[in-house]
Specification:
By secondary structure, the protein is of the alpha/beta class. The protein contains eleven helices and ten strands.
């Protein structure tokens, strides 16, 4: 969480709220009587709901249009965490606040935190170094250079946390989610297993779509996207990020950021501007106007709950794959048939 007086006040209010709630004796008695689970972001919440079905209540902590990169849990979030048997987080530097709040709940082995990024092999973020005045300094590629996918814009660390953009890694995580729920709640084992298998079938279909799209996209294509959240998917589709509009997630792009994105789009001849459900429309309008581009498409990072392109992980991911395929394929008629 961000450091400062506001954060301190929020943290104090949260701890007071938790103390009051525990004193009331309601922390282990959710009204539904079902297993209580939390997930930090929308993709994880969708997967846990798919596997849990009617045997658990699943709450997404970063709900609505909240930005996970600048998220500060509220007292109500802390209460939900304290009422839960498990919290499913991304880890890899994405949602470090979850660990703090699970520890503050002080429920011992009655509350488990799963950092799901530990269950997969993450992509490494690349940092280029150049020598300036005899000293090595971190350097990111210029806008007209191919940018290493996931090149550290989020400052999460050395590994890219956005693994949900790859259905194969999602399969690994969904299978493990089912295993952990069975350990926690063995009485509903058969339900978790059957719903796990159904979810895996959906992910396999999505993975097949990714493979089909990759076959229609010439290799080593470049794109300018709104922000750098698509490394896992683009790796599968042989695409490099040329530049991004929003260099720091959740922060309004500067005129310099827009200028660099415009320069990169001119260099690679990109005729489509990509926006995001929670991104800055102002920045997109500036770029489109400067380049005389009328085609604006949505790419969805899936890092919040609200999106005009779909109601769940599967719909939103399918939209991303189809949008990129239609934009870059040299066989547009075949790309159109992917739907």
């Amino acid at each position: 969480m961000r450091i400062g007086s506001v954060a301190a006040v929020i943290a104090a209010a949260v701890l007071i709220g938790v103390a009051i709630w525990f004193a009331s004796g309601r922390a282990d008695a959710p009204s539904s009587g079902r297993l209580q689970l939390c997930a930090t972001i929308s993709p994880l919440a969708d997967w846990v709901r798919e596997v849990a079905g009617p045997d658990a209540d699943v709450h997404c902590l970063v709900d609505g249009s909240k930005d996970p990169h600048h998220f500060e849990p509220t007292a109500q979030d802390a209460l939900r965490i304290s009422a839960s048997r498990a919290v499913f987080a991304v880890g890899l530097g994405m949602d470090e606040w979850a660990e703090t709040f699970v520890k503050n709940a002080e429920r011992g082995d009655k509350l488990v935190l799963f950092e799901t990024g530990e269950w997969i092999e993450p992509r490494k973020l690349e940092v280029h170094e150049i020598e300036i005045g005899g000293a090595l300094r971190a350097h990111e590629p210029r806008a007209n250079e191919p940018r290493p996918q996931g090149s550290g814009h989020h400052h999460h660390g050395s590994e890219d946390p956005h693994y949900w953009q790859d259905p194969r890694r999602a399969m690994t995580v969904v299978a493990r989610i089912a295993d952990e729920l069975i350990k926690i709640d063995p009485a509903h084992k058969s339900g978790y297993e059957s719903r796990r298998d159904a979810c895996l079938q959906k992910l396999k279909a999505l993975d097949t779509l990714v493979e089909s799209a990759a076959a229609l996209i010439p290799k080593n294509q470049q794109l300018v996207t709104f922000h750098d959240a698509y490394g896992y998917l683009f790796e599968r589709l042989h695409i490099h990020i040329a530049a991004v509009v929003q260099v720091t997630p959740g922060v309004e792009p500067s005129l310099k950021d827009c200028a660099e994105a415009i320069h990169a789009m001119r260099e690679i001849g990109q005729k489509v501007v990509f926006k995001e459900p929670a991104g800055s429309d102002r920045a997109i309008e500036v770029i489109a106007k400067d380049l005389g581009i009328t085609q604006v498409e949505i790419l969805d990072p899936l890092d919040n709950e609200i999106s005009p392109v779909g109601k769940n992980y599967f719909e939103r991911m399918k939209h991303n794959v189809l949008t990129v395929a239609k934009t870059l394929s040299d066989r547009p008629a075949e790309a159109a048939k992917l739907e």
